[in-house]
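sanity check this record:

:::
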Amino acid sequence: MLMCRDLAVIASDYIDGELAGRQSLSVKMHLMMCKDCRTFIGNLRASTELMKAHSSAQPDEELLRRIDERVTEALNALKSRGSDS
């Protein structure tokens, strides 16, 4: 079973359609059951589209890496708070 933190790591690949069939199916199954990850994927899609629409240059890879790290940290913090209850 795909965990939220695992999804955060592969979310961009999922949105870009770069996952193999089995892995993509695992993400879809997880999204059916996890409202937080559905929200996360929706926000990531919107952010990606916004960046594409307002930038003709390639985004800075270091910036993207830092954004991915912070999103993963935030998702992990959210999940750990949920498991504390």
About this structure: The mean pLDDT is 88. The CA atoms of residues 24 and 61 lie 24 Å apart.
